Amino acid sequence: MTKLKVVMICFLFLCITSSGYAADEKAKVSPGDTTEGFLMDKLQAGPDIELTESGTSNRVIIIGRKPVLTEKGDVLTHNDNKEVRLEVGSNNEVLTADSSTSNGIKWAPVPNGKDDADGVEIMFTREFQYDPGTGNVPAIDINGTALVINQTDPTVTLGGQARSVLATTDIPNTTPQLQQVIVDLPSSLLAGNYKLKLSNSQGNSETVIPLNEIIAPIGGNDSFTKLLFHGDGAGAIFTDSSASEHTITVVGNAIQSATESQFGGKSIQFDGDDDYLTIPDSEDWSFGNGDFTVDAWVNFSAHPASNGNVLAIAGQFSGLQKSWRLGYYNNAGTYRLWWNTSTNGSNETDFKPAWTATLNNWHHIAVTRTSGTVRAFIDGVEIGSQADSDTYHSANSDLFIGIDQVVSGYEMNGFIDELRISKGIARWTEDFTPPALPYN
Predict the structure, then answer these.
(1) Total Cβ atoms within 10 A of residue 376
(2) CATH 2.60.120.200: does it fit domain 225-423?
(3) Could you tell me which residue, 383 or 175, shows the higher pLDDT?
């Protein structure tokens, strides 16, 4: 490397300019500068410039370029501003493009894995939804050679954690013979690179696979589900997505609207003026003294207007055929979630924990009962509970959505999405994370 030497003798006037370097590599010495080290103080080192002072009587300043690569295996890269040093990676890693780093590359494990001569080799992987006969689960499909000895041999780990082998098979018409192994994934997994290792009595193979964020099917439309509205249909044509396939009748201007939606791009809109849905009486929501869950996503356009007023969500409550009803209640200026029930069709019992909705925002509302306790949850947080071992009246009346048939004016003003009635199960008994997907 070319170096510039400057020899300074005391009381000499000297001007130094280092050609070939940046403009800040200049120094001016005047006759009065006699203090030891003064020249070093005047010099400014530019990017990647090294200054070295030596000698005692006649000072020598050496200006040279810094060594950029300092360790065996270092790599010289650029980050749009200057050359930078990328330290050597770990054994068996390779350089790979990565736009998230400042210089656009990084060290990473070998994408095609690490294998030896045992014949066991992972050649292809993908993440997908697999149905083992009980519904879809997130899974990894692994293809390769000599992967399977029998159903319990191989074993598979992902990120060091053992996974369950869901299925194994030979892939037909392949030479050499390829095999498939399907393993499960956690119900949720952060996006990233994970080491996948398959081992059997013949050998092992490992590879690093990139995985997207996986969210398992939310489920929730099962044998306990007796009514399910996604609210994603066309206009006033409503469908019950549960196995019961109840018939829905539209009254007024209740529609499936794209104005607001929690899931699916639409929800059920009620304007608070005689818009509601009815469904014929069914044992599906005659809860007796058993477990149940009523839950929905709700977006209120207004609070209940006056003391005693209710914005009705759902219920089987009509005349002397009262069973249960759910709504948002104004109790002398204190807003509450309202669960109101009857044991004989005429009497009423209230469960009304305090809660104020945020208008024009979606809230997940759930009421559950199990083991003689009824609980209310807002956005996954329990807001109240009370003892309830009552046998609810088996009412002979329609189920109403968006209106109450006992008191005039108890009508929904806002939107409802993903309304579900579950019989025989309390889906939540403690705080939970609200569903991130529609029930399926």
Answers:
(1) 23
(2) yes
(3) 383
Could you tell me which CATH class the domain 121-215 is placed in? mainly beta
Residue type, 400: F
Paired with 370 in beta bridges are 373
Extended strands (E) in 159-203:
161-163, 165-171, 178-184, 188-189, 192-199
Q: Which of 148-152, 241-245, 320-324 has the lowest mean pLDDT?
A: 148-152
**Domain spans of the chain, in order of start:** 4-65, 75-109, 121-215, 225-423
DSSP structural state of residue 283: G
CB 426 within 8 A of CB 370: yes
What are the Cα distances from residue 174, in Å, to 146, 178, 179, 183, 292? 13, 6, 9, 22, 53
Would you say the CATH fold of 225-423 matches that of 121-215? no
Residue 431 has pLDDT above 90, yes or no: yes
The CA distance from 123 to 147, in Å, is 10
Per-residue pLDDT tens digits for 43-84: 555 555 555 655 555 555 555 555 567 677 778 887 777 777
Per-residue pLDDT band for 229 (boundaries 50, 70, 90) equals very high
* CA distance linking residue 33 with residue 84, whole number of Å: 37
Number of Cβ atoms within 10 Å of the Cβ of 103: 17
Q: Which of 405, 388, 272 is nearest to 339 (CA)?
A: 388
